[in-house]
Design a protein that fits this description.
Blueprint: H1 2-20, E1 25-28, E2 47-50, E3 62-63, E4 81-82, E5 101-111, E6 116-129, E7 131-137, E8 140-141, E9 163-167, E10 174-184, E11 195-205, H2 213-237
Antiparallel strand pairs: 1-11, 2-5, 3-4, 5-10, 6-9, 6-11, 7-8, 7-10
Helix pairs in contact: 1-2
The structure holds calcium ion.
Residues 129-130, 184-185, 187, 192-194 line the site of calcium ion.
């Protein structure tokens, strides 16, 4: 009797499970910096919405083609970008100099209406010159920062290594706006370039399409046939 009840419960759960469908994860269309650059060297996935340098005000974000030797190397999934293509650090040719202050890099992506927002997530790693002061998703402050490090002015910040980050809240259906806040800090030791290199990927779960009605009918018939067998068996045993 107790066994029959368990079997019936299992069969009912099977039918309900088929009706609800599995929940696969879909990839969010987020891009690393420098991965979608046009012929003019402009990153098509990012815009500079705030700049501390009137000479390089944005909104264009440029693939950096010259940068200091202590910045971490470009990778297969991210490259350095900045307010201008030249981020060279050379006391004799201070062409990469940028004003001290805040630079905000913005990227956008879309989440479909049927997505399960609570499952959305982005993970990645980033490097900045000089300091990441926040990441903001749709106005929601993520309080992600990079600490200052190094004893020499030119070593301040996280330009020499990647810093991991993840975002698990603040997502919305439709267009999502993701901002990276970068502070360019005072450098007493020569030209003062700034830039950011972001690697990231993301997923969100969406319900699978509803199974074909025929599939459900067949599954239902199978389950009820299964239940019927145990009901008849129970009558015989009683
Ligand atoms: Ca700097």
């Amino acid at each position: 009797m107790r066994t029959n009840l368990a079997l019936q419960t299992a069969a009912a759960a099977l039918v309900l499970g088929l009706a609800a469908g599995r929940v696969p994860a879909d990839t969010l269309s987020v891009f690393g910096t420098g991965m979608n650059v046009n012929a003019s060297g402009i990153d098509q996935s990012y815009t500079l919405t705030t700049s501390a340098d009137p000479g390089n005000p944005g909104p264009n974000v440029f693939l950096v083609n010259q940068f200091p030797p202590n910045w971490i190397a470009n990778t297969a999934t991210s490259k350095w970008v900045g307010p201008r293509a030249d981020a060279s650090w050379d006391a004799q040719q201070p062409t990469g100099n940028q004003n001290v202050g805040t630079y905000i890099y913005e990227t956008r992506f879309t989440i479909p209406a049927n997505a399960i927002l609570s499952t959305a997530q982005i993970t990645g790693q980033l490097a900045v010159d000089n300091q990441l002061t926040d990441v903001v998703l749709n106005g929601n402050h993520q309080h992600i920062t990079t600490p200052l490090r190094g004893s020499n002015p030119e070593d301040l910040g996280y330009s020499t290594q990647f810093y991991p980050f993840s975002i698990t809240s603040g997502f919305v259906v439709g267009t999502n706006v993701l901002d990276f806040f970068v502070a360019n800090l005072f450098d007493t030791n020569g030209p003062n370039p700034t830039g950011i290199q972001v690697q990231m990927s993301g997923t969100v779960n969406t319900p699978a399409p509803t199974p074909e009605p025929g599939t459900l009918v067949l599954a239902g018939m199978g389950a009820f046939g299964f239940l019927g067998y145990h009901w008849r068996r129970r009558q015989v045993m009683a």
